[in-house]
Design brief:
With 330 residues, the protein is an all-alpha fold. The protein has one domain. The protein is built from 13 helices and two strands, in the order αααβααααβαααααα. A two-stranded parallel sheet has the order 1-2. Helix 3 packs across helix 7, helix 5 packs across helix 6 and helix 5 packs across helix 8. The radius of gyration is 25 Å and the shape is globular. The termini are far apart.
């Protein structure tokens, strides 16, 4: 045994000497590289935790409020199975999504992008006029929301009309008992949002930290409420803000509802671009996909877009953009 240890030590010493790791210059270079990696990791991890403390509470509150609304003004009768399955999936989605967002934020900072518009609340919120401060907090973030929802509208349509992207988005559409708890997307969608939404919006507008926190929390909360299993009506405001029944049409199994209601927050974009469908009072369709089940496990959630069988699928509205071939019609 001692001979074996001695032999391993000798080999290690020879390797170190051969590779130059005993050279002080090399050691300094190695430490400098390690220090650079550490400096890179610190701001990214800091951004992750910053996003976490905004996203997680908003997701939790949105889910709880959604559950309350679903019980007070219910939609269809649902089991708790799909909700419970969604909990570990949400954990994976938030973890990966936060990582991607943190890296993106750091990279955008390195690019020193200068937006066309800067929304800065400091001048208005520091005003002694309470009404001015209230209007600032309520109205100015809406500018960012409008731009975001416009870009999201077209991002959403792209997801539906390019097969490889539809494989990713179909994970979200496959949810059969759609509600405020299980409205997760596939984690790859966050990666797709960077070049198609976040980079363009960073070129158009930049918000200060206060507005960013407000926007992140409202967007996450709205995401939960929009998917709630509830017949809640916003009255005449349903033409201004997307209510759960409006977005449920988008998830409908019925073909007459395909290609409708792509907007996330403001139905006006669907109205402008001809994709709006405001459901009747008693219209509450089933959701999901006829050719794909919702993920039954975390593993299924992660790998579904990469399954070979998915190559044969087409988005529901593929026929509207590309003339179907004979193979598509079979």
């Amino acid at each position: 045994m001692n001979g074996l240890v001695a032999g391993l030590v000798l080999k290690h010493d020879n390797y170190v000497e051969r590779e130059g790791y005993s050279d002080p210059t090399h050691i300094k270079r190695y430490l400098a590289e390690a220090h650079s990696c550490l400096l890179l990791a610190v701001p990214i991890s800091g951004s992750m935790w910053s996003f976490f403390w905004y996203v997680f509470p908003a997701t939790l509150v949105g889910s709880l409020v959604g559950i309350l609304v679903e019980n007070l003004i219910p939609g269809e009768k649902q089991s708790w199975t799909s909700r419970l399955r969604a909990i570990p999936i949400w954990a994976i989605y938030i973890l990966i999504g936060l990582s991607i967002s943190a890296v993106m934020q750091y990279c955008l900072g390195l690019l020193h992008i200068h937006p066309l518009v800067l929304i800065d609340l400091r001048k208005t919120t520091e005003s002694k006029d309470v009404l001015t401060a209230i209007v600032a907090y309520a109205a100015l973030p809406c500018v960012g929301f409008l731009i975001y929802d416009f870009l999201y509208y077209w991002f959403h349509r792209i997801l539906h009309n390019i097969t490889v992207l539809w494989r990713v988005h179909s994970v979200h559409h496959s949810i059969e008992e759609l509600n405020a708890v299980n409205d997760y997307h596939h984690w790859l969608e966050d990666a797709l949002r960077i070049p198609l939404i976040l980079v363009p919006i960073s070129l158009l507008v930049r918000v200060d930290a206060t507005v960013l926190i407000i926007c992140i929390m409202i967007l996450r909360f709205m995401g939960q409420m929009t998917h709630a299993n509830s017949k809640l009506s916003y009255g005449f405001l349903r033409y201004v803000i997307a209510e759960p029944r409006f977005h449920r049409i988008h998830h409908s199994l019925e073909e007459r509802h395909f290609d409708k209601n792509f907007a996330f927050m403001f139905p006006m974009w669907d109205v402008i671009f001809g994709t709006a469908y405001f459901p009747a009072r008693d219209e509450y369709p089933k959701t999901g996909l006829a050719n794909q089940r919702e993920p039954r496990s975390v593993l299924s959630y992660v790998i579904t877009p990469f399954k070979k069988a998915g190559a044969e699928r087409r988005p529901p509205n593929w026929r509207n953009l590309i003339k179907p071939t004979t193979d598509d019609l079979e």
